[in-house]
Amino acid sequence: MREQLEQLRHEALKTVSDASSEETLQEARIRFLGRKGELTALMKGLGGLSADERPVVGQLVNSIRDEIENLFETALSAERERATVSRLQSERIDITLPGRRALRGSKHPITQVIAEVSEIFAGFGFSVAEGPEIEHDWYNFEALNFPPEHPARDMQDTFFTENSLLLRTHTSPVQIRTMLKTKPPLRIIAPGTVYRCDSDATHSPMFHQIEGLMIDKDVSFADLKGILTIFTNQLFGQKTGVRLRPSFFPFTEPSAEVDIACVICGGKGCRVCKQTGWLEILGAGMVDPEVYHHVNYDAEDISGFAFGMGIERIAMLKYGIRDMRLLFENDVRFLRQF
Amino acid sequence: MKVTYNWLKEFVDFDQSPEQLADLLTMLGLEVEGMENYGAGMDQVVVAVVEEKRQHPNADKLSVCRVNNGREIVDVVCGAQNFKAGDIVALAQIGAVLPGDFKIKRSKIRGEESCGMLCSEKELGLAEESAGIMILPPTLVPGTPVFESLGLKDTFFEIGLTPNRADCLSVIGVAREIAAKIGTSVKCNRIAVPEHGPSINSSITVSVEDSELCPRYAARAVHGCRIAPSPEWLVNRLAAVGVRSINNVVDVTNLVMMELGQPLHAFDCDQLVDSRIVVRRALEGEIFTTLDSQQRVLVASDLVICDAGGPVALAGIMGGENSEINDSTTSILLESAWFKPAAIRTTSKRLGLHTESSHRFERGTDIDGVIRALDRAAALVAELAGGTVAQGFIDVYPVKSVPPAISFRPERANALLGIKLSSKVMIDILRGLECSVTEMTDGILMVTPPSYRIDIEREIDLVEEIARLNGYDNIPASMPIARVISDRPSLHQRLESMLRNILVAHGMNEIINFSFTTPDAADKLLMSDVDPRRSVIKLANPLVEEQSVMRTSLIPGLLEAVAKNISHRSLDLRLFEMRRVYINRQNEEMPHEPIYLVGAFTGAREREGWGNSRDSIDFYDAKGVVENLLEELHISNVKWVVDTPETFYHPGKSCSIMVGKERLGTIGEIHPTVQKNFGLEKPVFCFELYFEKLVVLHRLKAAIVVPSRFPDSTRDLAMLASDCLSAEKILETVKGIKAQEIEHAEIFDVYKGAGIPTGFKSIAIRIRYRSYDRTLTDDEINIIHSRITENLVSKLKVSIR
Ligand SMILES: [Zn+2]
Fold this sequence. Notes:
The complex is a heterodimer. Chain A has 11 helices and 9 strands.
């Protein structure tokens, strides 16, 4: 009996190590351990043993059964694991094939720059104001202290309509319209489309500006410098150098051109900055008392500043665009990059 | 405006290098836009003496010269004939680079060694044409660079002047700015005029009839002049600031204008009828021929300078042919005057005649500088043209101009600028600008600007001068105290940005077209003759015909963008534009500028790719985008009404988008003829939405529907229906039974073709049933479903398949 049991154990070991699939293992397991299996058959012989031997051999049978069971369990789970690995291996796909992409749309770069600038100024408490593009001479020029027949009008080549209105040459008339209906204090920016009869690589007959205006008690030129420095740092990066230099606009005094250190060469001098290391991006100044006079503000009581910038200019600097006309060609190969 | 470094040095002493000077001027508001180092790199062209000149052995027209360059004697082959041994010449040595990137190398010319080149003025860039080589004055020292020894080495500055700085349209003006900044003053010597013979009054009389437009008119006469080409220095000096030499007299007037900013005019005195000058307004329709041989028709607002016979000059703008200086002129009348800026500008603009003279007069010249300029010119004419200046001068100046006395509060300047300058520093700055300053007891300063600073009239103008001279760099940067909080963007602004986001999420690219368009845009869209969009706003001065009217529709620009992209082989397009159109209004001066939103779809529905379909996009793709957009704006009860809304759509594939009686917009396939008009081969689907209507109909989402927790059950229903029966009708009929258990009904298949009789279509709908409070039983669903089926059959005459 002991020999038979030992024999069985031996056979089971060999069968497990020879088995090549889950099925053969399962079959062998039933053959050894099943209800009609070989171990059960052997156990029927227990009855013929003496009362002394029976518990000893019985114990032996149990321990051999446990051993064989463990053997099969381990082998089966190893086999399952191997099968899974091999199945997953066979399911491999080419992950380098491009993804199935939905169409990606885009906002025009001009729209994006306007949004970005507006967002920065919203942080400074500036609200957005708007006005008409087809304007009266009074709002576009006279109220902004461009008297008729003044050479300052030559600074802006104007489109006129046949019924003697004009296409606004800057967003500054929005200043006038806002001041006429609002009392100080006020902080506004006015993004919009403007027009000048001029067309080449750096001029487009239609382009975009953002006008800013702040009026309050005791606003100074130093405040203007502060706001514009923080603005340019937020737009172009923390360390961007800013320079204000004297200039002239009829509706501000003192007036300034605002330059930033060239973002292309870092101030060393290159073609874009004409070797000066500086890029002009803004015009600004303290609101001229003559303007207050036109909108019935008391110039002794309040003070303020105004500024204006070309959106195309900023977009060109931000994205390294050389020719402004590219912005209005509506070529999707260009637009899809935004 | 051009000035040169050397010329400025004649008026003010300064130590700054050209680069430092450019920076100083820019930071004063005189922006240096360009610099040219004249003569830089020409140091290899040196003064040399021709020691010996002999015939070239192998060429008749060449000579071989032995030339002393101050260090050694070299051989140079030369083709010019206009020189002899002993002449001083300009030798370009080996290594010199002449204008036009012409490099001088050692060479052999017909067997003879040549170590350099003898240069002509043309080759050195000193003249446009020249005959033979340049012969230099015998006083020059051999070996020294030619440009240096002729005093030609200089730096030219191009200054972008702002229109307020009329005073800086001259060398002395720029010099004054430098002087004020560095704390010195300009050199302004007394001019000695050598007067001889009879008084000017014996040769000319002047009467000014319009002293409003001409408050001051001065003149001097110079007799016995010889008109000749100007000397080299004068030609070069004028060339440096971009003025072409004419003759010695005209050049003197130009030189003085460049130097002092006062435009002058020289008349041929003998051509003035009756030796009279009358300053008056032109007669309406008076005809006058200017120096440039153009006939000008004048109007009564023009100011003219006349003799007894009629106009001889257009005041401050240009002289006339009839009194022009010519080679036989001997007597000269020099005019120096002050004209009213606006009058000069009006005439100059009307005639399209812009001159150096009108440029200065219309910006405002120095009324106190009139005589100094006249004296300087008379003295120079006498010197260069060999004439004698008549005794005295004429000066018609009835009302002396007095510059304003401005009261100036130093503490106001500090407050406006955000600085803390003492009154004393401010006084120094103002005096440095040649203002006269009186301190009042209350700290207020009474400031009178110099006569040439016509831009300084008010306290704020003085504040600017303080800021400028003290330096913008010396103003600190501070943050204003906020007493305002910004408004939330308006509904209008928020919706604009929301719409853009929705369209971008649908794969659409935003475009921006010009607001002006071509006048035939309405024709291309087949718009009817009475279409109000034909009443466009026209530009009076368009750049080109294609940009001459303000657009009333965004569709033409959109279709052009589609066509242009297709020509670049970008075939699958989804474009949108959201911008203004410009609508004329009856009885209102200002046009209406509503925002429209348009979109165009063409090409394939999906992106090109290995797993994507290449099916063509169609009407329903466009409609789907609009449906999503309206849903996101919570605009409900939208009706798609077949009413042939626009001529530019296919009549069978277009509709209006309505809410109640409000039309929100339209959608459709572009009409084949319009498609052709824009050069498009494939169908294009467009929508047009009126932004203002969307703003009005837009609703905030009030409440959401809580999803049911119970299971759903779906039933399909296929039917054969007349081709004319709309999907909308079928769905309305389904929902018409008003059973709460119908959660959703949609059309999932539409089929026409094989197996379906002509005039019919097969339509399949799927209805999803679900209750909020229980699981529906089959029986319950069957009852509702058969009511739907019966309704469809009885009301719509469909047959169930
Ligand atoms: Zn640069």
